[in-house]
Each structure stands twice: as C-alpha cells, then as structure tokens.
Design brief:
The chain is an alpha+beta fold and about 210 residues long. The chain is built from 2 helices and 12 strands. The longest helix has about 40 residues. It is elongated. The chain starts with a helix and ends with a strand.
Amino acid sequence: MPVLPEVIKALLHRHPTREPRQRSQRRLIVAAIAALLAVLSPTLFAAQTAATNRTRSRPGSHTTDTRTKVVVDAGDVKVRIALSEARAFGGQRVGLVVDFDIAPGWHVYGKPLPQDYTPTAVIFDNDLLSGQNLDLPKPTPVKFELLGETLPVYQGRFKAVGDILLRQKLTPGEHRLGGTLSFQECNDNLCKMPQQVRFEIPLWIGARE
C-alpha cells in the first residue's frame, strides 16, 4: 500500500483551502481516508507478518531458524521434539528439547512405575547416534483411590531437555533421525492402551574438511 500517502496528498491539495466550503470538503476527505486506513490496517499487518515469516523460513536467509523440529500429534497427547541444530557434523553433540502438551483431564506417567504401566519416554534410533540423554522433570505423585496406588504423573504442559551424540563417521548429506514416543494416557476413570508413536526429524550432516 505504498501509494496511499501520494493519494492522500493529492486529495488534500486538489483545491485551494481558503474558502470555508472547501475546508469542509477537505475534512470529509481526510475523515474518509482515516476510516479506510483503520479498516485496512489489520489486513496489511497480517500480510506483512506472513511475509516476514516466509522470509525467515526461506533457505539461505540470514534469519532462518537453525533448529529442526517435528510435532507428534497423538490426540490428547501432543509433543514437539526439537534439535538445537539442523546441520551438524559426525561426533557432534546436539541439544534436544521436548515440549509435552497433555489435554485437560488426562495424565501420562513418569518413573518409577509398577511393571504394568508404561512410562513416558522419547528414544531415538541408534543408526546415527552413539549416545542420547533426555531428562524429564520430576513427576507429581498422585493417589488413585480406585487403584489403591500412588503413581508419578505428568499433567498439562511440561518440558524435557537433553542431547544426542552423533556417530563419528557419518555419510555427509541429508538424513532422517528416527525415534519413538512412548506413553500411556489415563484419566480418573480409565486408562488407554500404551502407545508407541514413530517420528522422524530431518538432519543434515556436513563434511569435515
């Protein structure tokens, strides 16, 4: 909308402003333009924001997010798994952040647990890795009257942090780092079957000079 200032200027200076009638017309024009801008501003701002976001995600842009991530949507359990780097080298240690979002009324389990329950875990395949570590926050002990047990649970939103260690000798190029999200969700009345959800994160391995 860069032409709007020129349009406003043209409308304001189209007629001499000495006569009262022409001053009145000028005020009406300004009021109409102000009302039009008020209506268009949210749309213009949204378009600018979308364009900025496209620029940030454009390959080669200086503002491109250097992280790589994947969102696992398992209904009442949603998990965002993010690596600190989208490009790495063999032998490099890469940071890991996992954000959990559990739907209201539901919970998943932490550790330690009785054998019949499934704890929450994110485990990567070992094809590209020589080591991995993920520290979940301390779960909250909750007493379940119907079960007669007190169990460690997670509810709502929580975050786990850790890292992965890449193998020393990896073929340069694009790879897919696979893994499995494991959990069992329950509410106060029932427990669903344990779930194991597969995911993959793109990771570019660079060549060492």
